[in-house]
Every structure is written in structure tokens, then in C-alpha cells.
Amino acid sequence: MTIYERIAEELDKLEAQSNLRRLPHLTHQEKHVVVNGRKMINLSSNDYLGLAADRSLREEFLQQLTVDEFMPTSSSSRLLTGNFTIYDRLEEELANRFGTEAALVFNCGYHANNGILPAVCTSQTVILADKLVHASLIDGIRLSNATCVRYRHNDLTQLQRLIEKHHAQCDQLIVVTESVFSMDGDRADLRALVALKRQYPKVMLYVDEAHAFGLYGPTGLGCAEEESCIADIDFLVGTFGKAAASAGAYLVCNRLLRQWLINKMRPFIFTTALPPLQMAWTLFILRRLPAMGQRRLHLQQLSASLRDALRQRGMECPSESHIIPLMIGPSSEAILRADALQRHGFYLLPVRPPTVPEGTSRIRISLTAALTQEELQQLIKAIDE
Ligand SMILES: *Cc1c(COP(=O)(O)O)cnc(C)c1O
């Protein structure tokens, strides 16, 4: 069978299972999207604070922008000539804000998670990863030489058993988790993980805050700031493409680790650095995050209202955050429910395998601070129908 014959057959199978994906055609109007002529509130993006939908922020940024700062390409990797001063300023700001020795910025979270673990692990490293960690982490683990064992989602009892089992025979154990999980919207218990780490000298912690950066903690640095454990996390990763309305990712760490990654991390070395313009926008947003407490509070209030409403209706709701899945099960049914909610004016999408485990198709509601309480009540009504 040729490659074309095989993939045509596989695509037919995906279609029959309601798991075939297509790129949607859409246009954006602040917090709305227009799809097939229908204008809907966008509840499927990761613009959690509503910053991407906020025109006034972009206007303010543009007003202070000079032609020299409007640099839409770096024309090089950072190790050659792509290391514009804006990179140093952004990394200094990140290290200052997190109170760490150093920070390193990457082109995206996928690169960060793909490159950090392969750069630091040897065959004597054991990675213990939560069953639900993001695909970018799974791919990074696969590229590394480490032995990997997955533990049941958020099951710290099983995690401790695995640490006990592997601790003696390896050089280092790295526990890998997200702080807010991207599909169930629940959270890892960072303090318990730190307490566990303190019992075992070889254990290190790797925490991905992609869905928490900007949203939690007194100045919006994430769950680690909220839980006062930034210094206890060896690899603290976050992304700028979600609540921070930009692009790129960061690691805050010590100087030694930063120096090593600059030398060894392939997705850092072999790529053109993000445009300095993008970095300037990231820094612009980063400096405004501490003062966005009102937006964070509003998002938390919306989230609590929706979670309560679902639970009152007897629906399963694992979420502890602004990511709230409507659990459905079969993919075909999730598609129908998403269509119905779209007819009510809410752009919601079915999330299907392989993004989530087989049989757990759902509608992923991504709340945003741009939503009003009235609009949330309309959403709840639409869910009831
Ligand atoms: C989105 C996401 C990433 C990838 O970040 P990008 O900047 O979009 O590449 C990594 N980890 C998690 C948990 C994510 O949700």
C-alpha cells in the first residue's frame, strides 16, 4: 500500500468515527468570532483575561511604538545575531518578578516542553509524569533518554510509591505536571508535591503553568506564586500565548540550568528567534499583569458560577478553574451538543480523541474575563436546553 492509499483510508476511518478535523474559517471581532455568517461569543480560545480582545491595549502599544522597535523579524537564532536587547530585558524582568536567578525565553511552549527534558536527562534519569500532561511534554519525554513512568492523574499516593521504587537506582527523578490541566481544568496540589520533593533528595519538580500564568497569584505569575512555592520548583515553565495574549514561553530557573540549555537545548538553538516586536508586546503585557487583579477576580467569579450551575444540575465537573469541560462521552454526541450551543451564540467546540482519552469527548468551555455575568447566565440557559 502506498502512503497516499494508506492515509486516504485512515482519513475515511476518522470521518466514520466523527474524529476527522478540519481547519475552520473564521473572523474575529473582539470577543466574538464569525463562522459561516454566524456571530458568536468565543468561548474556545485561550484569551482568558480578554487581553487579546482588548483593542485599547493594542492602541496604547502602537502609540508608543517607534519604527526602530517595529522589528517584525530577528533574522537569526539567538546564538548568532537574533539576541536583540529586548530579549535580555524580558528575561531580566521575568527573573526579577519571579525572584529567580535567571529566565530563558523560547519561541513557544511546545518548544520549551520539547527541548528542556531531552537536554537535561540521561539514561540514569527517571521521569514520573502525570497521566494527563500535555502532548508537548509527552513528546519531550519521548525525545529524552530517560525512563518514564506515568502516574494516575493527580494521584500523589501512587507517585510516592513510584518514587520509593525508583529512588535508589537512578541519578535523578523528575516529577512532571501541569498546574492547571488543559482539558479537565483541575489543578495539581503544588504544595503537596513540594512536600514530597523535600522527603527525597533526588527529586526535582517540572511544572507547566501554561493555563495559569497571568491568572493566579497576587501579581498573576501563576499557581506557584499563589502557593508561595516558586523557589521549590526546579523547572517552572509558562507560556505567553494564552492569558498573556502574546506568543512564546519562558522557563525561570537558576543560572546554571539556563547556561546549559543555551548550549544544549535543540529547539532553543536551531530556530529563528521570535520577532523583537513580539517580545516588546510580551514585555508590555507582562508589566501590566500585576494591576489586572480585577480581571482575574471577575474570571474567578464567572468560573465559580458556571461550575456551581453544572454541579447543581448533577453534571460531572472536575474543573477547579476557568477551563470547564462539559463531559459528553461519544464524539458524535459532543459534535451535536457543540452545534446546538453555537446556535445559541456561543462558539464552543467538541474536544475529541486523541486530544482527550477515548470515550471522554467533551465540550471545553474556556471562560474569559471579557464575558459578562449576564452572558454567562445566557450560556447556562443554553446548556439547559
Ligand atoms: C498550550 C500549551 C502548551 C504549548 O504552548 P504554545 O506556546 O502554544 O506552544 C504547552 N503546555 C500546555 C499545558 C499547554 O496547554
Task: Describe the protein.
- This protein has 385 residues and is of the alpha/beta class.
- It has two domains: 3-49 and 293-384, Aspartate Aminotransferase, domain 1; 85-290, Aspartate Aminotransferase, domain 2 (3-Layer(aba) Sandwich).
- 42% of the residues lie in helices and 18% in strands.
- The chain is built from 15 helices and 14 strands.
- The chain has helices spanning 3-16, 55-64, 78-82, 85-98, 109-120, 135-143, 156-167, 190-199, 223-226, 255-264, 266-269, 276-288, 293-312, 331-343, 373-384, and strands spanning 27-29, 32-35, 38-42, 102-106, 125-130, 147-151, 172-178, 203-208, 235-239, 249-253, 323-329, 346-347, 350-351, 361-366.
- The strands form three sheets. A seven-stranded mixed sheet has the order 4-10-9-8-7-5-6, sandwiched between helices. It has a four-stranded mixed sheet with strand order 1-2-3-12, with helices on one face.
- α8 (190-199) links the parallel β7 and β8.
- The longest helix is centred in the C-terminal third of the chain and has 20 residues, at 293-312.
- The radius of gyration is 21 Å and the shape is globular.
- The mean pLDDT is 97.
- It binds pyridoxal-5'-phosphate (PLP).
- Pyridoxal-5'-phosphate (PLP) binds at residues 108-110, 113, 134, 136, 178, 182, 208, 210-211, 239, 241, 249.
